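Case study 2.
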Amino acid sequence: MKLYHGTSTSHHVQILHTGIVPRGRKKGNFAKAPSHPDMVYLSIAYPFYFAIGATKGKQRPIVFEVDTDYLDEYDLHPDEDFVHEAMRMQCKGYPIPSPLEIRDALYSYQHHWQDSLASMGNCCHHGIIPLTAITRYCIFDQTQRMELAMAMMDPSISILNFAICKQKYCGIVEWMFGDRPTLPDDEFSQLNGSPEIRKMLDDRKSFWEQQEQNREGITVCPMPHKA
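Prediction:
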């Protein structure tokens, strides 16, 4: 299985030498809900969203592809947001731990990592992801492709959002890495409605068709040890 880790090019050289290292004591990207310091977060749908969010100044978003065949399955864990949302849905009316409490006890939920991927598109890995497990990376120059970058920045990451938009966001990742020739249809493309709604949907379809004909600003490279 291929999973993806989004970050900024400020970590590019380090990752090429040491693999993907958990943040440890470094400041996380989400001040109000910091990630687990010993985990590397992975996604099948939103790695470019996370990469763009981690990028500052002249840095560029970069997404690393990880092959789980080279990882120990028992190092994979669910995303704490998935556990919290699933508990909230299943335990209505009962007190449940906060996301931060779940994060600190994430090892207790290890066996739900596949549920986390299937239902929210995200999971995490305990400890360093070794170079042997990293196959490729994609550098995205969002300054050349602002419309495409904005299209990848709109998700509200949740179980419901993934259920509706899974095909779209997973398809974007596949296209960015050159694994499919076309971008996926918009998740609302099959809706019927007024002429105004149909025009809006036709415009969105045209937007995706224009984007998929241009790979400017997108560079996919094999890891040096895989070249």
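The radius of gyration is 18 Å.
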